[in-house]
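Researcher: Here's a chain I'd like modeled. Treat it as a single chain, no partners, no ligands.
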Amino acid sequence: MAAAAAALLLLLAAAGPGRAVPGRARRDALREELLLSPLPNGDVAAAFQFRTRWDADLPRGAVSHYRLFPKALGRLVAALGVQELHLALTQGFWRTRTWGQPPLQAPAGAELWVWFQPTVTDVDKAWKELSNILSGIFCASLNFIDSTNTVTPTASFKPLGLANGTDHHLLRYAVLPREVVCTENLTPWKKLLPCGSKAGLAVLLKAERLFHSSYHSQAVHIRPICRDASCLAVSWELRQTLTVVFDTFSSGQGKKDWSLFKMFSRTLTDACPLASQSKVYVDISPKNKEKELLEVTPAPASVYEAIVQGEKRTYAVYDLLSPSLFNTSRSLNVQLKWKRPQDSCYIHYQPAQDRRRPHLLEMLIQLPANSVTKITIQFERALLKWTEYTPDPNHGFYVSSSVLSALVPSVIAMKAVDVEQSPLFTSLFPSSDGSSYFVRLYTEPLLVNLPTPDFSMPYNVICLTCTVVAVCYGSFYNLLTRTFHVEEPSRGGLAKRLANIIRKFRGVPPL
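Model: Modeled as a single isolated chain. Structure tokens:
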């Protein structure tokens, strides 16, 4: 018996905590995926998805060991009777007209909607406690969710998993539109990943690159799903998604060409050791009417075709678990180039630096006849230092005129004019050759209204502070510098004695 027990212990020790014992199937699995999609306007969208599936019964609280599924979220689901949970933290707004349909839609700010189990008696209490716990986990202001910003929809927000979608009193929905997403929210989100940000696709999640973008949305979705086709048992699915849109103009990288290193300042070196699937998909479908094709390097090992949002899409697939992927190089840096460059516009953009240099945008455009060209620029209003405001700040701030330089074709052929013969005409109406003449136009200066503080408040504060300081300082200075002398009563001088002598002769009592 002792030898058999020793052999069993050796077998378990050889299996280890991270390896599966032969003959025993794993109850959890992790899949990590990245979708890179060039957008119609030249920007690039990157959508990460980390999917953890666990064959466990979380609501009954019969789970004591957690391997891939985050323990914080698992115990939260079991303790508060959560049936389905969806949390999204978004900075920016997805511009559908410019970027097309989003892969995952989310409103600006913080969005939370939860389906509770029928066993929960007090849904409002569980909802309040859940929002407070999630506020601590993700370092967000979800604790401000209360009855004033919570609703119970009846038509929208149906359950996405195995849940009863008719009992709507188990549903709660709230949005905090002013929630600001920053690094404090991204760090705990990455810590929920089985490999963290040390291996796999998560190494690309560099905070200074993700938040230097036009759109950023990170989400957590928990729902119950069928374990197999018969759906006799239930598994729990956790999806951590992150969508970001990079503006290639602001980074000075041009409109079309890009790579993983240009976007994330990092490349992929390996997959997460705990992942059963790790793939990168690149959308190489034609993006315009001319069927302009994309070229990706290195060449993908396989191509995947699918119908997405009513359109046929083609994706280049890179499998990080494939041994042949990292044979030629130690890292994967996917690069995308357009086979035919755009010749209708070569754009030069120099971003501004606060209090150092202004923006510079130059575009070389060939305009067709009888056409209207409209150029729009997005900007954000910011507060200046109080010393940078003009004496009349409510009037606004001027933006310098735009410059339009053009070679206008001439209807009538012009002859070259000697400068000496007609200096006035050659200086006022210059021409490059007989077929066109040069024109430089200036637009009207733009007046922009910026947020202006109440300048009367500093004046009032200064007056009040000076008054308080003067009174307090005067009182303390008076007490510290004043000297006190005690005078003893004198017995009287010569005048008093003379007066008493006179009063004595007159028969009057002395003083």
